Amino acid sequence: WCLFSNNTNAVWFNQAEERSSSSEIGYASICSQMVTRRLSSTPAVPGTPGCWVRSPSGCPRQSAASWVPSSSRWIEDVYGEETFNAGEDQSACEGRRQNYNFWCGSSDTIMYFVPPVIARTPGCWVRSPSGCPGQSAASWVPSSSRWIQDVYGEENFGAGEDRSVCEGRRRQDYNLLCGSSDTE
Q1: Strand ranges in 24-70 using DSSP code E only, listed in sequence order
Q2: Could you give the percent of the chain with pLDDT greater than 70?
Q3: pTM for the model
Q4: Which of the four, 98, 101, 113, 128, has the lowest number of CB atoms within 10 Å?
Q5: Is 16 helix (H, G, I), strand (E, B) or coil?
Q6: What distance in Å separates the CA atoms of residue 184 and residue 180, rounded to the nearest whole number?
Q7: Is 131:180 a contact under the CB 8 Å cutoff?
Q8: pLDDT mean over 166-178
Q9: Which are the contacts of 168, defined by CB distance < 8 A and separation ≥ 6?
């Protein structure tokens, strides 16, 4: 076995498997070649807030679909975010690993948590921990994993300058729009 480690990855490889095809190359070179080959096919980790999942061995119990984990890409665990607050709670996200391993029939599921971005600019910012089931996804629709600026409320109701409008009227407006009751 050889261990390759850089600042973002640590990977063990079985040199014996590779040595038979490259007997004249030293272990260091073999390890380097193996790591290069394997890491070049590993997708970059997501940067968007939320709970993300990838299964290096695939998901053999499920048919391929955009919402089924695979080895080639990260997918957002929307169900876990909406049902278990996995987009807000790192331990809830990481706990979803067992669910995916069982559902997929695999044992190598990787969960990756990117914390929500907290609004840093002044204004009225909105988020809906339970999602927004009453609306299709759009840049102006709040979600569990990201804050959006209520530009419409700021321009039409002064929600950016009046905290009571933002936290009162606009919260109620978004709860009605989304069909939810937990808009923040």
Answers
A1: 50-54
A2: 74
A3: 0.51
A4: 98
A5: helix
A6: 11
A7: yes
A8: 92
A9: none
